[in-house]
Amino acid sequence: MSESVDELRSPNVPLPSGNVLRIYSMRTCPYAQRARLIIAAKGISADLVNVDLNKKPDWFFDLNPYGEVPVVLHNGGHVYESLIAAEYLEEAFPDPPLFAKEALVRANERIYFNHWTKKGIPAFYSLLKAGYNDPELTQRLMQNVEVMDNFLKTLGKPFFHGDTVGFSDYMIWPWFERMPMLKDVTEFEIPRDKYPRIAGWVDLMWKDEAVQKAAFDPKLMTEHYIKYRTGRPDFTIGAKKPNVVEERLENLDGLRDPTTRDRQT
Ligand SMILES: N[C@@H](CCC(=O)N[C@@H](CS)C(=O)NCC(=O)O)C(=O)O
């Protein structure tokens, strides 16, 4: 996956050669990251388009009536909602398989990421939005971390998928990558001694190649969420800026030919 300056390619723009699908994403979006993790783990060459969610074009709502990323464009169709998009990618690109083969194991994987999605994520955002170490909200998130820790304990494996990283791990991970950001904003921290399995899982996840590929600069992450909290998010954060040579006009007044002013080299 390669990206440069943000360029909002509509679905009508053909995929750049060598790419098999397009993903509409946003750099700090944990939901879009779910799909990007699957793409990275499977080595799918994807055209990554980062959408400035402050300036969504009308056609984006034709792709997803909720106006949210991620949207995956593939084979003349498109899929939205991160869990549905990730499952679609798993089915459309079966190699390497990331989901368990046995139905019961797979159902358990779903139970893990379903819990995190239903309970953990809302608790995460409630605390983040509070913006300080509110005891009740801190406790609510901690209880959900405990549930995740207990899942691993009962499973007796290092990953939610089992002995290796798999589908459920990628569905849960993005919010754990954001825990240092949450600590910056609210002082929330997972105590290693109390929740050693989840702490160990975080350590192992950081070693995964797809996790490293899909990761975002932690400083910019905190910067982004501070703005997000105040209701003024910058969705272009982390974009590489166009290669414009800045004009330095100080002390040049009267010395420059005005026709040269707009020249960019
Ligand atoms: N339930 C959706 C949630 C996706 C979502 O909330 N994405 C956010 C960015 S992280 C978004 O696109 N928000 C639209 C906006 O802020 O205008 C999913 O799982 O894909």
TrEMBL record:
EC number(s) from the headed UniProt entry: 1.20.4.2, 1.8.5.1, 2.5.1.18
Free-text function comment from the UniProt entry: Exhibits glutathione-dependent thiol transferase activity. Has high dehydroascorbate reductase activity and may contribute to the recycling of ascorbic acid. Participates in the biotransformation of inorganic arsenic and reduces monomethylarsonic acid (MMA).
Domain GST N-terminal per the UniProt entry, residue ranges: 19-97
Pfam families on file: GST_C_2 (PF13410), GST_N_3 (PF13417)
Name this protein carries in UniProt: Glutathione S-transferase omega
Keyword Cell membrane recorded: no
Family to which this protein belongs: Belongs to the GST superfamily. Omega family.
Domain GST C-terminal span(s) in chain numbering: 102-228
InterPro entries the record matches: Glutathione-S-Trfase_C-like, Glutathione-S-Trfase_C_sf, Glutathione_S-Trfase, Glutathione_S-Trfase_N, GST_omega, GST_Omega/HSP26, Thioredoxin-like_sf
Keywords on record: Oxidoreductase, Transferase
Claim: rRNA-binding is one of the keywords in the record: no
Organism: Aplysia californica
